[in-house]
Design a protein that fits this description.
With 218 residues, this protein is of the alpha/beta class. The protein is 30% helix and 25% strand. The protein is built from six helices and eleven strands. It is globular, with a radius of gyration of 16 Å.
C-alpha cells in the first residue's frame, strides 16, 4: 500500500507526514500515540487515507466525536475518493441501527460495551463490505480503555487485528498516551506492527515519528 503525501493541512494544524513510511505491509496494524485527543485533526483518518486505496471501505469506530462529525471529516480528508464509509458510534444515547442510508451507522450508547462494538463491526463487514478491502479504524481507544478492562480491550483488539491481517486489511487506532500508565499503553502496543508517535509543536504543527515494534518481519 503506497500513497505518497508529504504533509496535509487541517483547519487547525499542519500534519507533517515525513516521519512515517510511504508504505506499510498489507494487513498492517498501527497505533497512533498522541498527547491529546486532537479530534479536530482526525489523525487516524489521515493516516488511513495515506495507506488505503481510494475505493477501499472503511469501518470507523468513534468514541470521542459524533458519527456526523466523523463523516464530515472523512469527506474532507478523502475528498476525491469514492469509498463506502460505515460508522460505529459509541457517543450515542441509545442503541440504533441505520443500515440503509448512504453511510450505514450502528449506534451504541457505551464505548466500553466491547461485545456490542464487536458485533457491530462484524455485522457491518458481513453486510456491506464484501466487494472491496475493508479497513478498521478506531478513532480513539482511550474512552474504551477508560470504560473497560485492559485485558478485555486487548483480547478484542487482538482478534480484530488477526482477522484484518488474514484479509490483508489495515487496523489503525489512536490512544492518548498522557491519559494512561505504561502497562496500559503496553497492552495495545504489543499487538501492532508500528507506533506513530505524535508531537504537537509550538506553532500547532503535528510531527509524526514512526517506530517499528515487535513484528520485525513486517
Amino acid at each position: 500500500m503506497n500513497h505518497s503525501r508529504t504533509n496535509t493541512r487541517t483547519n487547525e494544524a499542519l500534519i507533517d507526514l515525513e516521519g512515517i513510511p510511504e508504505t506499510v505491509p498489507e494487513g498492517a496494524a498501527l497505533c497512533i500515540a498522541k498527547p491529546a485527543p486532537l479530534t479536530e485533526s482526525a489523525l487516524p483518518l489521515h493516516i488511513t487515507n495515506r495507506y488505503a486505496d481510494g475505493e477501499d471501505c472503511r469501518i470507523i469506530t468513534t468514541s470521542s466525536v459524533t458519527a456526523e462529525e466523523t463523516i464530515r471529516q472523512e469527506q474532507q480528508v478523502a475528498a476525491t475518493a469514492d469509498h463506502r464509509l460505515e460508522i460505529i458510534d459509541t457517543t450515542a444515547d441509545e442503541h440504533l441501527e441505520a443500515l440503509y442510508q448512504e453511510n450505514p451507522i450502528i449506534s451504541i450508547p457505551r464505548s466500553g460495551d466491547l461485545t456490542q462494538v464487536t458485533l457491530a463491526l462484524w455485522d457491518l463487514e458481513e453486510s456491506f463490505s464484501k466487494t472491496h478491502p475493508t479497513h478498521v479504524v478506531l478513532r480513539s481507544l482511550t474512552p474504551i480503555l477508560n470504560d473497560s478492562s485492559i485485558e478485555g480491550v486487548r483480547n478484542v483488539l487482538e482478534n480484530v487485528i488477526e482477522h484484518q491481517r488474514s484479509r490483508s486489511c489495515l487496523t489503525i487506532f489512536s490512544v492518548e498516551y498522557t491519559e494512561h500508565s505504561e502497562p496500559t499503553m503496553a497492552a495495545p502496543e504489543s499487538l501492532v506492527d508500528g507506533v506513530v508517535w505524535v508531537e504537537q509543536t509550538s506553532n500547532d504543527e503535528l510531527q509524526l515519528d514512526y517506530h517499528r515494534t515487535r513484528n520485525t518481519d513486517r
